[in-house]
Design goal:
Blueprint lengths: L1 E5 L10 H9 L2 E4 L16 E4 L2 E2 L2 E2 L3 H12 L5 E5 L9 H10 L4 E4 L4 H8 L12 E6 L18 E6 L5 H11 L6 E6 L7 E6 L3 H8 L5 E5 L6 H4 L11 E7 L5 H8 L3 E12 L6 H4 L4 E4 L2 H13 L11 E4 L2 H8 L14 H16 L8 E7 L5 H6 L4 E12 L12 E4 L2 H7 L5 H10 L1 E4 L2 H9 L5 E2 L5 H9 L4
Parallel strand pairs: 1-6, 1-7, 2-3, 2-6, 8-9, 13-14, 13-19, 15-16, 15-17, 17-18, 19-20, 20-21
Antiparallel strand pairs: 4-5, 9-12, 10-11, 10-12, 14-18
Helix pairs in contact: 2-3, 8-17, 14-16
Length: about 500
């Protein structure tokens, strides 16, 4: 089955539930330039991803080659997702692809998407219809063969909003054509670049001056053109560019390819965020026996990965959560506790101060008051963690009980993307390994330059100490969480 799927206009939050479900289960994704690349992070590790984007007249593959590729992959895979920006049937050539698939005996399904024709205008503060100003709207492609021009003579109704998609390169011809056909030169117009994304830019004017204003604004494609009386409503209805972090650029190094929740929080507040994979998580299989688990008093988790891979080993041992009957569970913070809940387990201890120091202090009190039945009882603690994690916490826990370290996963280093770190306003570090890996190989002079131009943000003490050892200062979150990192900015601390 081939799914002709709309990816929406750019903001990943505007993808449909059905489209996202298909991306997650796809065996192969064939995607366009206008499909948000962040959506590919939701795909499985074994999913084949093939880029077939077009930029202006430059093509990776011709449309005929794309058609053939869809049939070829459908013969290999159960679920092929053809991911197209916006909606597949709104100037997305989805109809052509569907007809080709049908003619070659290949089943297909259409999954409509949110079109930039409506959403792009809305994110610029421009409703395509509005009572008293516009009672209809028309969507026109500006990307035509050189000798073709739209019939501007049919576009003279002042109560109709005109939306030209892919119109940046032809803004002058569009404006001149409408005026020559009889549309008033003072008719409001807007050009929206990279609509619904965190690099969206909007230029407004009239048909008489919009081409010149667009040139001086140096807008980039993809861009859409909106013409009509609704354009001035932007002054009252603009919301997307009013968010608190609008215009800021941040880098989030991360472990694994899954979308970062921190990046999601920053984007929701208007920031442009680039994610860079500096590590990947691999599980370390192990078998547990019910009898040995029965001797454990406390399970200690300091990460969601520790929870996930311990539970995988538990299940692969032929056991389930019933084997943990009578075992107390302590976690370092709320996010680890939330991961536990996915397995139907509640933590017995979450320290008020959610870091290693706070955990050990709370654990000592918890053992004395909730676990020990007599002062001489020895307490057995299992600590599922990363193979390459430091032993600091184990050493501290040994002061309150017998701590058995279980290596259930490994944080394997990846080479970060090649990029200029000075182009960002800030870099957010959520763990010590991300800090050391991203900055590895930097000279003392490079780190000093980076430190003076880019603000570093740290999620906690351990991460801050790693940065300090590299000679980099960081603003540390008062609460060791993604929300705590965001609040540094929202409260004006960084």
């Amino acid at each position: 089955m081939v799914y002709l799927t709309g990816a929406g206009p750019g903001d990943t939050g505007l993808v449909t539930v059905k489209a996202l479900e298909l991306i997650k289960k796809a065996d192969c994704i064939i995607y366009d330039r206008l499909a948000a690349p962040e959506l590919l992070d939701y795909a499985g590790e074994d999913c084949e991803k093939i880029y077939v984007g077009k930029a202006d007249s430059r093509c990776i593959l011709t449309q005929e080659q794309i058609n053939g590729l869809l049939v070829e992959k459908a013969r290999v895979y159960q679920c092929v997702v053809r991911l197209k920006g916006g909606d597949p049937y709104v100037f997305g050539r989805g109809g052509e692809e569907g007809m080709y698939l049908r003619s070659h005996g290949t089943e297909f399904t259409v999954v409509p998407g949110v079109s930039s024709a409506v959403a792009g205008a809305a994110y610029a503060g421009i409703p395509v219809t509005h009572r008293g100003l516009a009672n209809s709207f028309r969507v026109i492609t500006a990307h035509r063969m050189q000798e073709e021009e739209p019939d501007y003579g049919t576009m003279l109704d002042e109560n109709e909003t005109l939306v030209f998609l892919m119109g940046l390169a032809r803004i002058e011809q569009i404006a001149e054509g409408l005026v020559a056909a009889g549309r008033k030169p003072e008719t409001p117009a807007a050009v929206i670049s990279c609509a619904t994304t965190n690099i969206q830019r909007v230029c407004t004017g009239t048909l008489d001056d919009i081409a010149e204003k667009t040139r001086t604004s140096a807008l980039v494609s993809p861009a859409m053109v909106v013409v009509g009386n609704v354009v001035p409503l932007r002054e009252q209805l603009s919301f997307f560019e009013e968010r608190p972090l609008w215009g800021k650029r941040f880098l989030v190094p991360k472990i694994g390819t899954k979308p970062s929740r921190l990046a999601e929080l920053l984007r929701a507040r208007g920031a442009f965020v680039k994610e860079s994979v500096v590590g990947r998580i691999t599980g370390i299989p192990a078998k547990y026996r019910r009898q040995e688990i029965a001797q454990v008093d406390i399970l200690l988790f300091t990460s969601a990965n520790g929870v996930e891979y311990f539970m995988k080993n538990l299940f692969s041992s032929g056991l389930d959560v019933r084997a943990l009957h009578g075992v107390k569970i302590a976690v370092i913070g709320n996010k680890t506790a939330e991961k536990l809940l996915q397995y139907g387990l509640r933590s017995d201890l979450i320290p008020e101060k959610q870091d290693s120091t706070g955990l050990v202090r709370a654990l000592k009190e918890f053992i004395e008051t909730k676990v020990k039945k007599n002062p001489f009882q020895s307490v057995s603690i299992w600590y599922p963690t990363a193979k390459n994690a430091e032993d600091d916490l184990v050493d501290a826990v040994l002061s309150v009980g017998e701590c058995g370290r279980l290596n259930v996963y490994e944080n394997v280093a990846c080479i970060p993307d090649d990029m200029d770190l000075l182009e960002f306003d800030g870099i957010f570090f959520t763990c010590a390994s991300s800090a050391s890996r991203l900055l590895a190989g930097k000279t003392k002079e490079e780190l000093q330059t980076l430190n003076s131009h880019v603000t570093m943000y740290s999620i906690g003490h351990k991460c801050s100490r790693t940065l300090e050892a590299l000679g980099v200062n960081a603003v540390e979150a008062s609460v060791s969480s993604y929300e705590g990192l965001c609040n540094i900015l929202l409260q004006g601390q960084g």
